[in-house]
Amino acid sequence: MKNTRQKITDAAIEIFNEDLSAPLEAVAEKAEVTRRTLHRYFTDRQDLLLACQEAMQESCKKAIGDVYTSYSDPLERFENMLYAAIDCGVKFSFLHRMHNNDHHQHTTKNENCNNYDVTFNKFKSTVAELQRKELITKELSAEWIEMLCAGIVTAAINSEKSGNVAKINIKKFAWYSLSKGILV
Amino acid sequence: MKNTRQKITDAAIEIFNEDLSAPLEAVAEKAEVTRRTLHRYFTDRQDLLLACQEAMQESCKKAIGDVYTSYSDPLERFENMLYAAIDCGVKFSFLHRMHNNDHHQHTTKNENCNNYDVTFNKFKSTVAELQRKELITKELSAEWIEMLCAGIVTAAINSEKSGNVAKINIKKFAWYSLSKGILV
DNA sequence: TCTAAATGTCTCATTTTTGAGAAAAAAGTC
DNA sequence: GACTTTTTTCTCAAAAATGAGACATTTAGA
């Protein structure tokens, strides 16, 4: 059961992901509520946007965090982190984009940035571990691998949306491309 | 020497890529002209957006087309198409996104869609050729490979923007990941 | 240097978006 | 069924964005 507040933030994430300055009317429409209702939950655009950030953080933190603690084998862990990220869908890719675009200045002083770092450092440390154990190539920098992961997750999400790739294959393909693309 | 019209479309592509409904003031500012000047070249947002599409089409068509005719070896061609796409930068990724999002219904009846198809079919036919010759795996569908290419190009562009990956390495990394990720 | 074209400044009227009050309608709860 | 909570409808005023006219200023080229 999704409450109204969640319905609105979910809709907002979808809409803002495609068009950051879309009128709030569009968000309300997608959430199937009136603009008036939306404004009862969120005073303004900024407020809503912050709630979206929180929702995305929360989702990703939980999904990635669960996997992180469930697998001790780093390769298995890495694979399942990819799947978790794909399951987070737009929440993952939008969040990544928000913290890696021009205007955003990433700083440890910002609560949101810290939250982001907590989640994404789990990715990074796993990559680092794999590189240390020489399970993935050292020819690629860790930063590139991070970007690559985000790019592949985006590809997976777009594939699902477009409907041109069978849903059951998406994760398989994504892992195939990612693993071969970085393993030694 | 870039003329004003180009300066504005270039700025618009950058801005709209990040925020489709950004105020035209933001575009003017990026282009270092007044909003008044912008409006002398483009009657309204729609008009500007169409000009952006054309500019993106043109750029990609030329870049990809040149490579397509220059290399007879499909693998070499494919590699250089990737580099060309990366050089197109946002023009490539934004264009791809425009033709693969929810609202857009891709149809051969639309001039723009046709233009897009002309360019992207060169990608697709090369992939098909590589698969026929068993140079790339048949485990992955052509549609996935297309999405993957776009994802990797996006990763390359983001890497360049972030400055976290040395510029000289970006193309090397991208090709490393793409080739290993799909070759047999 | 003179002139035509391009751009900027200032201004204005419209339209769109935004945020919220008040009361009716609908949905839950006991 | 009576009561509470939530949502909608209708409304409005303020703010922001849009598109363009009139004229000053700058720029580029003969």
UniProtKB/TrEMBL annotation, chains A, B:
Pfam families: TetR_N (PF00440)
Sorted UniProt keywords: DNA-binding, Transcription, Transcription regulation
UniProt entry tagged with the keyword Transcription regulation: yes
DNA-binding region ranges: 23-42
Limits of the HTH tetR-type domain: 2-60
PANTHER family linked: HTH-TYPE TRANSCRIPTIONAL REGULATOR BETI (PTHR30055:SF234), HTH-TYPE TRANSCRIPTIONAL REGULATOR RUTR (PTHR30055)
Protein's name in the database: TetR/AcrR family transcriptional regulator
Organism: Dyadobacter frigoris
